[in-house]
Amino acid sequence: MAKYRFVIDVEKCTGCHSCFLACKDEYIGNDYLPTAAAQPEKGHTWIKLNETEQGQGTKIKVDYIPVMCQQCADTPCAVAAPAGAVYKRADGIVIIDPEKAKGCKAIVNSCPYRAVYWNDEKNLPQKCTMCAHMLDNGEKTTRCAEACPTGALVFGDTEDKNSAISRILAEKAGRVEVFKPELAVEATTKYINLPKPFIAGEVLLADRPGECLKGAKVTLTAKEDDTFLLEVQTDVFGDFEFKNLESNKNYIIKAEYEGYYFTELTVRTYASQNLGEIVLNPR
Amino acid sequence: MADQEQVFCNLTNGGPISVYVRDGKIVRVRPLQIPEAEYKPWVIEAGGKKYSPPKAVRLSPPAHAERNRLESENRILYPLKRVDFDPNGERNPQNRGKSGYVRISWEEALGIVSSEIKRLTDTYGGSAITGMTSSHHNWGVVGYKMGPFSRFMNMLNYTPVLDNPDSWEGWHWGATHMYGFQWRLGMPEQFDLLEDALQNTEMIVFWSNDPDTTRGTYSGQESAIWRVWLKEKGIKTVFIDPFYNYTAAAMDGTWLPPRPGTDTALAMAIAYVWLTEGTYDKEYIEEKTIGFNEFKDYILGAGDDSIAKSPEWAAAECGIEARKIVALAREWASKRTSLSSGARGGEGSACRTAYGTEWARMMVALQAMQGLGKPGISIWGTSMGAPADSDTWFPGYAEPRGQMGKSDVAKNKLSLQNKTKQRLFRLTLPEAILTGKEEFWGDGFCGQNLEQQFKQNIYPMEGHSTVKMFYRYGGSFMGTMSDTNKWVKMYQSDKLEFVINQDCWYGSEAKFADIILPACTNLERNDIGEWAACGGYTTNAHIGNNYRVIVRQQKCVEPLGESKSDYEIFTLLADKLGMKDLYTEGNNEDDWARLFYESSDVAKTLSWDEFNKKGYHLIPVPENYKSKPGLRWFAEGRDVDTADSGNPKRGTEKAKELGTYSGKIEFASESLRQNMPDDEERPIVPHYIPSWEGHRSEGYKKYPLQIISPHPRFSFHTAYDNHTAWVNEIPLHRVEKDGYQWWPVRLNPADAKVRNVKGGDIVELYNDRGSVLCIAEVTERVPAGTLHSYGCSAKYDPLVPGKPGSTDKAGCVNLLTTSRMLSKHAPGMTPNSCLCELRKWEG
To answer: Is B494 a catalytic residue?
Structure first.
């Protein structure tokens, strides 16, 4: 039996919103019973893109995280719903029954990802169905995945070991994660390259202020247990960057260059940090 | 249910679509559904890897909302007459933009329009009628604006309004005098540059370029995957742009934001580093260029201004530290670097500023110093240059062979038979109407030769009438042209005795008309077209796509309301004027479609009947395809071998040459030297001249914020904005607050703080020219002192309707921009040279 899943590579998402529009095109004004009633004209974003902006000055990063129903194994929505109003199909897709779920606003509130939307007119909670009606009709894709220009949004059958999604999950095994793991609802939608804090800066020499310093050594150490993590060299612009750090953790950044005193800074990743210019003095 | 569904093929300006129709209504629109087996993707081998595109078409984002746009509340459904317009009595032109409308019959509308045409031509001659279209709202060879509209208006001997090359001004008016390509309006050929980049390029400098947003013009998101490949390959990227644009966000390169309008200074400092360190291609300079010593003198401080264009000097202008400029210059010279300076190689916001000619010339200068055309060293937008069969010809709307008024398929080439020689120019049309006279340089798009730019047009032309009637097709200009309050004044002038607006949707100018005529979209009529391939000055634009796709554009639904196709509207008008046979030659739209199809190379292998039945056709890349990268022929001293069919030197004894007078890259321009040697604002050697509306200008004291308004991301200029409710819901496009969908302006936290503005506040942008309301988005994506807001609101919603200068709620930031041109003799628009102030709007 097929098991349908999404895997989303955030690094490849450009924020183009094609998925957002294709989803509206499929569902606004169109009923696909028994899996979906029509989406209202306005206000529902069964797939939306969360924009994140990190950093300051010229060292910033902007990412877009596509968020739809995360197809949780724990189905908190089913727990909140009357019997049979939310169910999981054999292929893994969680469906809100457009008839049985009528009037049940608790389903909207039960979703920790805020991915269930209330249809006022129909008195109905609604969400992404993974285009179940298309799959049931023999198609192999969803409207959002079909519209994605970069392969950021991959849909497929994880039971088929030759499918694109299976290959990606195997290739990137160590980097696959869920969105907001702290919600602990066993989301089956997987992400790669979710934005994480970074620390960036530039290293300069006090006696050569007019030059970018390439090749300064910058190391990253975890402060709590003094574990050395990474060493990089500044690039031609004198810039360095440590990506994919943990949130709210103290790190020690040490900048060194031969013939100069090193500089050490403790940085807490409550957010991404542009340390600006780190100036080294000559010995 | 499914058996009642019909699926039609059609084409948008963002790609080919399958349209699903049930009970006469469109229910969904998907990327054209082509069975995988029919795709024959190309393969590029580079660095031990094989690159091949997906077996699918990748639409532009808004094309996914085509159904929603078709059924928009803003569709014009019936002929309308302004309530206080009486063609036989009081016309009340002063009330244009203020008064409401009443529905009238087609018969009455056609009667009024045709009798006005008759009255004016009988009294003053055809030159008393002018007209012009907007662009990009539809697609199709038969139905697009240059077909029916041009055929009809030229039949009347009207006064055409010449377009300015609004998206690539500086390249057109500047770069042509350095490296030619006037037949491409200043933009370089892009053939096979994807393969070249994957195989040879080590660094890409994106300069004032956001290809993920501008998408090679019509190529949807076909090239998005190319930039994923380039990133995965580890090619270093640098982004020079005052806005941390979407391509920068996707590729995560080094961001260097110059102060708007100072890019030329930055470019000169890069040249300075190369000159002083000797890190330029001396052999190439010697063999392939002229005038280098004059240029060198100017850069090093031995020129007329005695200023050395050092990194320190440039830093004071552009705000980027001198050491970063030096580092960039050294890295650029040490790596095979591609300069990505606009969607089609050229374009970019920096070419739409004061003296944008000089920036575009400097872009050519920099790459010439590094050996432009050698492997990996190109001017490449990253959104064109896929392998393709460029020998098979299919008509495009922008070329004579694709226009029903000019093509050989027509018995009477009516668009070429206009007896009126008088011309107007779009950027100064309001001045021409209001003052009754106007002079302007050039012929709008000067694609014929370099001398065309030096021609002076005088309006009214001797023996011609001033214009008294304006036949306006579309209505985008309030959001897209400059200093647009002047358009309000123009429309309210009694010198315009009669104004028509014809469109599918209410554009920002529609309600300035006396008569409004409802046109239908290309989903409501039959046509043919090729994806992205407009032809004309952008020949072979299909190389922005991974596949060449020809589409039989099939009528999917009946025209909404009483809307009609443009061809039908003009046929009905021609009939009223007794010119129907002349206009139609007995052809309906399908007859024209078939005639155009059968004039194409595709018809040699695929009959009309087969094509008509199937609905689309893919032109495969030949099996023995040989890559011929743009300008490689020039760098290697060979005859031009690319598919650049507009190059007039192809196949002549000058085939090794560029389009300049010398045939070489001209650091000191011979075409400028011979035609306009004393022009201090577009001198023979490129100069840096501080902007008349920038950080050194007088106005900066009063208005210290510089606003840039580049091409938008989620609409195509104004097309798809406002008329497409789903697009309006994209929170990066418009933001809803208190029941209104506001246009965002992006500002730095420091600028927000001193003005007590928070994200989500409604703010007023203002200067002496206008006032616009936007919603504030506080972001690090613009540096302090710079504002960013896209330039293409489709909606104009002044607080006091019809009052010039009234505050606009809908985000037409071009109410703020200036009428002043690139320079005295280079009449290009300059929306990115604009000073303003911002304050919280208290209502």
So the answer is: no
DSSP run (H or E) holding A133: helix A132-136
Give per-residue pLDDT as tens, A225-252: 999 999 999 999 999 999 999 999 999 9
Cβ within 8 Å, pair B224-A29: no
Give domain B80-157+470-619's CATH architecture.
Answer: 3-Layer(aba) Sandwich (3.40)
The three-state secondary structure class of B756 is coil
Reported ipTM? 0.98
Question: Who contacts A249 (Cβ-Cβ below 8 Å, separation ≥6)?
Answer: A222, A223, A224, A268, A269
Task: Please tell me whether the overall predicted TM-score, pTM, comes out greater than 0.90 for this model.
Answer: yes
**What confidence category does residue B345 fall into, taking pLDDT thresholds of 50, 70 and 90?**
confident
Question: Which pair of structure tokens corresponds to residue B756?
Answer: 């007590």
Q: Give the mean model confidence (pLDDT) for residues B547-570.
A: 98
CATH classification of B169-387+627-675 is 3.40.228.10, yes or no? yes
Evaluate if residue A195 carries a pLDDT over 80: yes
Structure tokens at B511: 């309600």
List of residues 6+ apart from A103 with CB closer than 8 A? A123, A124
Q: Would you kindly state where each structural domain of chain B is located, as residue ranges?
A: 2-70, 80-157+470-619, 169-387+627-675, 698-840
Q: Tell me, yes or no, whether A50 and A188 share the same domain.
A: yes
Q: CB distance from B55 to chain A under 8 Å?
A: no
Angle at A76 between CA A70 and CA A77, to 5 degrees: 80
CA distance B199 to chain A (A): 21
Q: What single-letter amino acid sits at A49?
A: L
CA angle B278, B281, B287 (to 5 degrees): 130
Q: Which residues contact B399 (CB under 8 A, 6 or more apart)?
A: B534, B535, B536, B539
Q: Which two tokens stand for residue B222?
A: 């076909």
The reported pLDDT for the residue numbered B121 is 98
- The whole-angstrom separation of Cα A118 and Cα A105 is 7
What's the CA gap between B32 and B617, in Å, rounded? 11
Instruction: Report how far residue A254's alpha carbon sits from residue A249's, in angstroms, rounded to the nearest whole number.
Output: 16
Hey, CA dihedral for B353, B354, B358, B359, is it positive or negative?
Answer: negative
Q: Which amino acid, residue B155?
A: M
Q: Do A147 and B64 touch (CB under 8 A)?
A: yes
Helix, strand, coil: what percent of chain B each, to 5? Answer: 30, 20, 50
Mean pLDDT within B254-270:
98
CA distances B288 to A116, B298, B657, Å, are: 64, 20, 9
Mean pLDDT computed over A40-62: 98
A127 and A12 in one domain? yes
Q: Is B64 left (phi over 0), alpha (psi -120 to 50) or beta?
A: alpha
Dihedral angle at the C-alpha atoms of B626, B630, B631, B632, nearest 10 degrees? -30
Test A150 with B228 for CB contact under 8 angstroms: yes
Q: At what angle do helices B322-334 and B263-277 cross, to 10 degrees?
A: 60
Select from A177, A192, A207 the last residue of a domain: A192
Judge if A156 and A207 occupy the same domain. Answer: no
Q: Mark yes or no for CB contact B212/A14 under 8 Å.
A: yes
For tokens 């285009």, the residue is A131
Q: Measure the CA–CA gap between A46 and A43, rounded to whole angstroms.
A: 10
Amino acid (1-letter code) at residue B766: Y
Indicate the burial class of A174 (C-beta count within 10 angstroms; 0-12, 13-18, 19 or more). Answer: exposed
The conformational region for residue B181 under phi > 0 = left, psi -120 to 50 = alpha, else beta, is left
Tokens representing B85?
A: 């317009």
Cα–Cα nearest to B496, from B438, B439, B433: B433
Q: Residue B343's pLDDT band (boundaries 50, 70, 90)?
A: confident
- Nearest residue in chain B measured CA to CA from A243: B252
Cα separation, B206 vs B210, in Å, equals 8
Domain extent, residue A60, equals 4-192
Tell me the CA distances in angstroms from B40 to A139, B544, B621, one per residue in order.
22, 17, 8
